[in-house]
Automatic annotation (TrEMBL):
Name the record gives this protein: Multidrug resistance efflux pump
Organism: Acidomonas methanolica NBRC 104435
Record key words, sorted: Membrane, Transmembrane, Transmembrane helix, Transport
Superkingdom classification of source: Bacteria
PANTHER family to which the protein is assigned, alphabetical: FMN_FAD EXPORTER YEEO-RELATED, MULTIDRUG RESISTANCE PROTEIN NORM-RELATED
Amino acid sequence: MQVSITLCANLALGGIGVEALASGGICNMLIQTGVVIVQSTISSFQSLLGQARGRGGPEGEAAAERFVACACAIALGLSVFLVALLVLIVLVCRAFVFEPSMGRGALLYMSSAVFGAPSMVFFSVMRSYGSATGRSASILKAVGCGTLAYGAGAFVVLLFCRGMGQSILIMMGVVFSIAWSVAAIMSFLTLDIFPVLKRSFIQHEWPAIKSSCAAIIHAGWPVGLGVASEMSANTMLAMFVGASGVAQMSVHQLCQSIELLTFMPSLAMNQTVSIRVSYFHGKGEHDRSRIAHHVAMVFIFLVALAEAATILLFHNPIYRAIMSDTGVVSARFGGGLYDMFLVVCAVVVFDALQATSSGALRGKLDMKIPMLMAVTSYWIVGFLFAMVLARLTPQPILGVWIGICAGVFCSACLQTVRFIRINSVGRAEMT
């Protein structure tokens, strides 16, 4: 759900042209990266909420509401920092990494799109709350409204503003920010979150509020750091690709768009298995935690295989639907695009498995060891493989994506083995 508006944004930018997709797409990736890191840092509230509800009783429900309110407060503080950081990153990249035209386009797009980041953070909190309380339909309505808002806005911009040159990117960024604001506001309204905030901040003692905030941050910082290791490695690789030219960057954004689309079921499974495992963990039913994880792994593996098969069968229509200037890219890559799709399919499958195991570990509040696994997988394995293979393969971007695939595969294996081991002894080793 969360990536749907970002995916639509990449599709609309691809409709403008290769340069728009390259410059605007890298900004969307940076925004998504920052939001996911912040979201992951806060996401421990979902496991804490699930365990509180698993304990039951009035105290458990009060604690669950308190965790939601504290997550919203933490999100507000981190969002301000995120906006400033994203603008700074684009300014640095424009000066030292991007080609002049691409750098100017990225700065124009980010200047307006960055204001959608706080709304994305708040929406992610509401999505986690809705999933934990069995109100996913409300989140679907909210994201549907946001997607429709983006579709209508992008249609108007593409219809009336095509002659504006690179300035059209400012308008597309405004549409992006408005769409996410609509999604966040609708999620607040449909989940009726204001009474929860009122009860938590007015009726609870401040020591309890402080304790809940501290619990979220203490449990969440390893998750945020682990996700940051993955996203920062991917971002650094994207910067490397961007320095190779617009054609390479546009293909990278094409692959990112496909991976974003296919990651939606995996993201949903990550949330679902985290909620179920945390609930059973709170009740001390470790056998049911194991069953929930194994069923989720089998199901998401089959879904990922179906997605990979669809990508391979319809790679040409997908390519032409996302890229408007197919001639520019085809002249640069030739038949190498099919190899890219093969690697992307492997990433889709392994990413689905690692996302599911990651959610299960978070449900058991096992955070620190998975963080070290993520750093090892994405920097020591993935990043190094990518940088070496980028110089050995005919197209640098192909080597980069093989490295990404290696990192995701390593993470999936390590986290799956970790969950099986800690669940067999009935507790998460918080070391």
